[in-house]
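Pilot study result, target chain (180 residues):
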Amino acid sequence: MKNLSIICASENSTFETVAIRGASEYLGYLTTVHWLGSTDQFKDLLAGKQPLSDLVLLSSHGCKKGFHGTDNAVIPINVLKIKLSGKTVLSLGCATGTENFARAFIAGGVENYIAPESYPEGNSSLVFALTFLWKILEKKNVAQAWEKASTLLTDKDDRFHLYQKKPNGMLVDGNREIQL
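Predicted structure:
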């Protein structure tokens, strides 16, 4: 059995969180959901102040500036003190797959950060997440699971990027290295 932590960052992500929790548990995950009531709780979880599984899913909305928290308050990426050493983080928030977000997560110890750079349609995010989780259970590594889930999304706005921690930077989508 594999563990999964889901962080439901705002009340606007509730249906997505419930769908992913139900399906992931059906697949065989032991799922813990963190239902947040404040932006401070979101900050504390990403700062490592509460234990999370090695696989973390952020069920949220996003924009180029940051994540949408409770009451649609934007939590700027530059104020987050991320400390998630060794984790794989899958963010479903729109526009959270830019290099700016990836740098913050990789600098905070995350091994793999996966998120959409643009504004995917909600069903696409759900299908991507569930396929990724299913492929991880099939003993695929993160890059293989990301690749398999990516093949389902044909619209360029639905695309999720994979950022992987490397000794001197990070690898983007398995083929382009950039410095931190």
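One observation from the pilot: Helices lie at 14-27, 39-46, 99-107, 122-137, 142-150. A full batch analysis is planned for the follow-on phase.
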